[in-house]
Structure formats: C-alpha cells, structure tokens
Write a structure and sequence with these properties.
The complex is a heterodimer of chains A (421) and B (201). By secondary structure, chain A is mainly β. Chain A contains 7 helices and 29 strands. The longest helix of chain A is centred in the N-terminal third of the chain and has 9 residues. Chain A starts with 5 loop residues before the first strand and ends in a 6-residue tail after the last strand. Chain B has a domain of 113 residues: Cytochrome c-like domain (Cytochrome Bc1 Complex, Chain D, domain 2). Chain B is globular and about 65 Å long. Chain B has a two-stranded antiparallel ribbon with strand order 2-3. Chain B is built from 7 helices and 4 strands. The chains are: A mainly beta (421), B mainly alpha (201). Strand 19 of chain A pairs parallel with strand 4 of chain B, so a sheet runs across the interface.
Chain lengths: 421, 201
C-alpha cells in the first residue's frame, strides 16, 4: 500500500500505462483517465479488514476522495454556480450540487410562516400555507432544469474557449426528482375565470422575481414543488416552494414562490423583456421563448481530462430536450464526417436528461469528437453555424448547438469545433 | 386598453391564447413513464377546502405588479429634478454618475442595441416605462429593496428616462403620464415563433 498522498491515477490506468490497454482489450472509462488539473487524494493508510469501521451517523458524508464542487461565478447577489457535469454519474444531480442562479441572493424563509397568495381572475382568491399545500394530492416527476443562458460561452465566433469544462460551459443544468402539488389542482381549487390566459408567478426573494407564464402550461404539467430528491427542496432551489415548468427555461420557474396572479395578459416583467429575450438578426428580440430545444454534450472525454493511452474508451454524455423524449443521440469521432448511434441508458424520461454511451477505439491520432441529439418531435440538435444562420451571431440565450472536443495526440482534451467553425 | 400596449399585446395574445382553460379531469396521476400529469384521482372533491380566503386588504399587501398599460401604478408623482437627488442617494453607487459607468447594469444606452451590454441598457432594450417602474419598485435599490416611496420611484424613473433623452428636464411623472411614454424598443419584442418539429429557428 502507498504510504503518502498520490495523484489521481486509478489502478487500471496504471496497468494501462504499464502494459498497453489496447493489447489487453480492456475498455477504459473516465475513471481510467487523469485530469489536467490533478487533485491530491488521501492514500489508503490502513487495511479496512483489520480495523473496525466507523459508527453509524445521523447524516452521511461523501468519501474524502470524492469531493465534487459547484463552480461559483462571483460572490455577488446576482450570480450563479454550476453543476460539475463531468464528475457525475447517471442523471440525478445531488441536491447540494444543483446549479444556482439567484437575482438577489438566497432568502432565509421559515416554511411554517410562508404563505402563497393566489388571486386575480379567480372565483375564490386564497392564501395557502405550506401545511395546506402538502395536504393536496401529491405528484412526483424527474425532469431537468436548465438556465436559458447556459452554453453562451461557446457562441461567439471570436471568443471560442478551449480550456473549458462541461461544468464551466453547460453547468447551469441539473436534474432532480421533484415532488409537490400540480398547479392545475390549486387553480381548480380557486376557480379560474373565463378569459384568463396567463399567470404571474412571483418570488419572495429580495428581487421579488416575477415571470408571466401562459395558463395552458400552468394547467398542463406545471407543479408547485416542495420536494427535491426525497427531501424538502433546498433553499438554493426555492425553499419552501417553487414553480416547476418541465422543459422550460429555468428563469420562469420562480423560486420561493409567494404569489400567483391569474390574468388575461402577460405582465411584461423585466426578466421577460429586457432580460431572457433572444435578439435576432432581423432586429427583433424573441420573447417568451420558454421551451428548451434538444441538446447534448459529451462529458467524457472532455476538458480537463487527459487520455493516458490509445485503445478502447467509453465516451459518455448527457442529452435532453424540453419538447419531450430524446429518441436518438449520435456520436462522431472523426470531426462530424461520420456518425454512429450512441446507446441511450435507461431511464429515458420525458423532459429529463438521458445518459448516452459510445465505445470508441482511439488510434492515438488527433481528432474531434462530438454528439448530436434528436428528440421525439424530429428536431436534431443544430450546428453552431445553423444557429448563427437562424438567429444571428449576436443572440443571447438558448445556445443548444453541438459541442465538440478536440483530442490531441498526447491525450489532452480541449473544447473546440476545429474545422467545423 | 391603453395605446402603449395595443400592438405588442395583440401579437402576444394571438400567439399564446389557449382554448378555454382546461378543467383537469379524473384520470391516472402519472403518464407512461411515471411523469406527473395534470390530473386528480377519481372522486376528488370539487374543492378540497384547504387554505383560507384572501381578503382585498390581504391581496393589496402583495399585489405590487404594474401591467404595461399602467394598471397597478400607485398614486403619487415625481419630477426629474427630484429624481436626480434620489438617483445620487440610492442608485449612483451601482449604476455610475451618468447611468453608464456601472459596476452594475447600464441604464443609458449607447451603440447598437444588439451589443451586450451597452445596447441592452434600459433606454434601448426595455419596451414599457411602466414596467421599469415595476422593476425599480420591487427590486431596487439592490441592498435595500422596497424602501423607496412611490413618489421617489416616480422621480427616479423620470430621471433615468431623462438621462436617456426620453423626458424633458422639467417633466413630472405620475400614473397617467408614465403610461403614455413610448419606449424606443417597444416594437422590438416579438412572441416566440418557434413552431416545434424539425425546423431550426
């Protein structure tokens, strides 16, 4: 056994380096790769079969060598932190790693004193306390939430990054099992009046964040969520209750919800006009662009991983669409000249992330790998050129174009479309 | 409906108006993949009776939003000159002496509106002066939100409009005159025209 800290090479990576995995026929995964930003991990100092283990505890904790972290943009009231996509497995985001985007910080709210006011074009304006909301028939669903600004760091032709990880680029994406009461149940309780077409959802944070949402979405699959991955929703995700709009941009899914006003028209708040609208090349700005189009990203190999050897590697990544189900993910390992179907790992849920996998025998030569997702509406994740053509190069938000990684012959991985640009 | 909203709103409503609000019926509570659907169990009562009635006073306490046509604007007024004082006291430290210096969002536009961030300033990328009042009153000043009087909000909105060349230096704003202002970017905003399917738009 090693006696001091060592670098994060797995045993298989050492074997691969020593004997050449290509010859041995092993398939390597991200656990066999190393990171350009190497972290020290504790060494195995004792034989666990020769000493008694730790006692039971009230709250568990991660293994010392497994410490994924959100990436904090700036310590400011209006800021964000990003989910470490390249460090996670499966599709569920651990709640303490769910991305954050706040406009005036995270409010401290005592759930027992929290109230939700529902009024406007309704028969019975009402105030609900959390105990009231929890008495209604409960629903759960797994779905992603993504900030519509996610991925904007790879849209400007003149500022394409190279040393950027999936977390830095697309970490404003997380997936949870959400539990709560369907919004339609509450709207049924208050009685929506004829002529109503919109709701205004308003938060109890210091920005009193407010967004207008069409009533048909509110009556469809929207939820007032108070649970996240089996426990109460986290303060950073809207404790004690948030609006959940499956498949729609995160900003509209108002957190710390305190008021819903039923109306015949949108309120045109700041965050649905001056922000969260998409300037187009014809001089207009697309408004109420709620739905997140199909998207995917390879999370391994990606920066800052380094492939220590040629041979069989398992490419993996995430695909998702706000329009329903992902039906296909294709992977190219030759810069987009040829494509192969990736394996979609169940569960494949509507408006949720899906993990895909693809075996690749790397010959050790420099190449570009990329993925493209197709959803049940027939929409195929576009190239960046297609988005530029459709919307112009100056647009902001909804950057769902294909992502690519360049694999150098020395195994270093960097972001970049190579010749595709 | 007042003039400032007519064109934009008609377009929005045409694109987004659903059929008559759906009444959730009784059916399975989950879809084929376990996703929740808008439904209640068979036999659910017309009303559950949880929650309490919200009185007019209770609603008024929180009903702060201002619609584009000015609905929801409170009584009161403020002048550009008074707004200069409010701005220097409460806004300048984050938005700069002339609304262009930052460190936080620009309030006065410069250059092409497509450019970030110069062009996304209030003066060039905000469709209604009424909803600027709404935002200022709900969220500003950032460190002491909700502390300005309605008169102060009218005044500082007037001053920022003046900084953008959209209001005379001797102007006074109230609910009626604020709703009558036409912002340069009003017609820039168009409803989402993505129609689903394979089209990349």
């Amino acid at each position: 056994m090693a006696t001091g800290p060592r670098k994060q090479f797995s045993r298989r990576a050492w074997l691969a380096a020593a004997s050449g995995t290509a010859a041995s026929g092993l398939v390597m995964t991200r656990f066999d790769a190393v990171k350009a930003t190497v972290q020290e991990v504790p060494a195995q100092s004792v034989d666990p079969t020769r000493v008694p283990g730790r006692f039971v505890s009230e709250v568990g904790r991660r293994a010392p060598g497994e410490q994924p972290r959100r990436l904090v943009r700036t310590l400011a009231l209006s800021s964000s932190s990003r989910t470490p996509l390249q460090d996670l497995q499966g599709t569920i985001t651990p709640s303490d790693l769910h991305f954050e985007r706040h406009h005036a910080g995270v409010p401290d709210i005592v759930a027992e004193e929290h109230e939700l006011l529902v009024h406007g074009m309704v028969e019975r304006p009402m105030v609900f306390r959390m105990a009231d909301l929890r008495r209604y028939p409960q629903a759960s669903r797994i779905c992603f939430i993504e900030c519509s600004g996610n991925g904007g760091g790879a849209y400007n032709r003149n500022r394409m990054p190279t040393a950027i990880s999936p977390q830095q680029l697309d970490g404003l994406l997380s997936t949870s099992e959400w539990t709560g009461v369907m919004l339609s149940t509450i709207l049924r309780e208050v009685g929506v009046r004829p002529g109503a077409n919109w709701i205004l959802a308003e938060g109890r944070d210091a920005a009193v964040m407010a967004r207008s949402v069409p009533l048909d979405k509110a009556m469809d699959d929207s939820m007032l969520a108070y649970g996240q991955n089996g426990e109460a929703i986290r303060p950073e995700q809207g404790y004690p209750v948030r609006l959940l709009l499956p498949g729609w941009e995160g900003n509209a899914q108002v957190k710390w919800l305190r008021r819903i006003e039923v109306s015949d028209r949108p309120t045109m708040t700041r965050d649905e006009t001056s922000r969260y609208t998409d300037p187009l090349k014809d001089g207009t700005a697309r408004q109420f662009s709620f739905v997140m189009d199909a998207k995917s990203i390879i999370t391994f190999p990606s920066y800052p991983y380094v492939l220590p050897d040629r041979g069989w590697w398992e490419i993996e990544g995430l695909a998702w669409t706000g329009r329903g189900r992902i039906t296909r993910v294709e992977v190219s390992t030759d810069g987009g000249r040829s494509w192969a179907d990736a394996v979609l790992q169940p569960p494949i849920l509507s408006k949720s992330t899906v993990r895909f996998r693809h075996l690749w025998n790397w010959d050790g030569r420099e190449t570009v790998i990329l993925s493209r997702a197709t959803d049940e509406t027939g929409y195929v994740q576009p190239t960046v050129q297609q988005l530029w053509d459709a919307r112009g190069e100056g647009t902001s938000y909804h950057h769902n174009h294909q992502r690519a990684w360049k694999i150098a012959s020395d195994g270093n991985v960097t972001f970049g479309l190579g010749d595709l640009l | 409906m007042n003039r400032p909203v007519a064109g934009m709103l008609a377009a929005v409503l045409a694109a987004c108006t659903p059929e008559a609000p759906a009444t959730p019926g009784a059916s399975d509570a989950t879809g084929p993949d376990g996703e929740a659907v808008a439904a209640l169990p068979t036999g659910a009562p017309e009303q559950f009776g949880f929650g309490t009635h919200a009185s007019e006073d209770r609603i008024a306490l929180w009903d702060i939003d201002v619609k584009p046509d000015g609905e929801g604007l409170p009584p009161g007024s403020g002048s550009v000159e008074e707004g200069r004082r409010v701005y220097q006291l409460s806004c300048m430290q984050c938005h700069g002496p002339t609304g262009t210096e930052g460190p936080n969002d620009r309030l006065v536009a410069a250059g092409e509106w497509e450019q970030w961030p110069q062009g996304r300033a209030f003066g060039a990328f905000w469709p209604y002066a009424t909803t600027f009042f709404d935002y200022t009153r709900r969220a500003m000043p950032q460190l002491t939100p909700g502390t300005m009087s309605n008169d102060d909000v009218y005044a500082v909105v007037a001053y920022v409009l003046h900084l953008n060349g959209l209001l005379a230096p001797d102007a006074v704003l109230d609910a009626e005159s604020l709703a009558a202002i036409e912002m340069p970017a009003r017609d820039r905003f168009v409803p989402d025209d993505r129609a689903g399917g394979p089209e990349i738009r």
